[in-house]
Amino acid sequence: MAASATDSAAAVRAVGRAQLCRPDVDDGVACWRLAVATQVLDVNSRYAYLLWFRDFAATSIVAKMKGEIVGFVSGYRRPDERRTLVVWQVAVDERARGQGLAAAMIDSLFEGVPDTDHLETTITPDNAGSIALFRAFAKRNDAKVRRNELFGPDLLGAGHEPEILFRIGPIERPETQG
């Protein structure tokens, strides 16, 4: 049986009826199913989600209601910029949408990853919801947003919108104020 990342990291916080906590390997399959159900995310293999939550549990978060996954944010630290948290995917089950869950997961995740002062994500130009979500994160943190194309259709393939890099920061943390 896989070691649970939540053994050492209890629930981060409650949002409405949802509990936010670090994922464990067993959450990978449910997150894969949720990614498929969104019908908008680039879905990785089940294996990728299992590995993700084994290797990057400390930089990811899940939302559970009655023990069932209703949302997740997968992330990692940039290897060449350890103070930057990259948000890879954000998903919320349609039953839990409209309650601020995505914003709460991103806020809790960033707060729970020490020694970071920037957040990065990529968003396609047609994804108004994600653009608003991350602009609001920047506003809550009084941080600048810098945007530039990271990967264009020439690399992503025909029919794929470009991925625009949103770099948010620097974000001043309470422990760095003074």
TrEMBL record:
Per the record, the similarity remark reads:
Belongs to the acetyltransferase family. EctA subfamily.
NCBIfam families per the record? Answer: ectoine_EctA
Q: What class of enzyme is it?
A: transferase
Q: Which UniProt keywords apply?
A: Acyltransferase, Transferase
* SUPFAM superfamilies according to UniProt: Acyl-CoA N-acyltransferases (Nat)
- Name of the featured protein: L-2,4-diaminobutyric acid acetyltransferase
One Pfam match, given by its short name, reads Acetyltransf_1
Q: Which residues form the N-acetyltransferase domain?
A: 18-178
Query: Which pathway is this protein assigned to?
Result: Amine and polyamine biosynthesis; ectoine biosynthesis; L-ectoine from L-aspartate 4-semialdehyde: step 2/3
Give the E.C. number(s): 2.3.1.178
**One of the record's GO molecular function terms:** diaminobutyrate acetyltransferase activity
Gene name linked to the record: ectA
CDD domains, per database record: NAT_SF (cd04301)
Q: Do you know which InterPro entries this protein is assigned to?
A: Acyl_CoA_acyltransferase, Ectoine_EctA, GNAT_dom
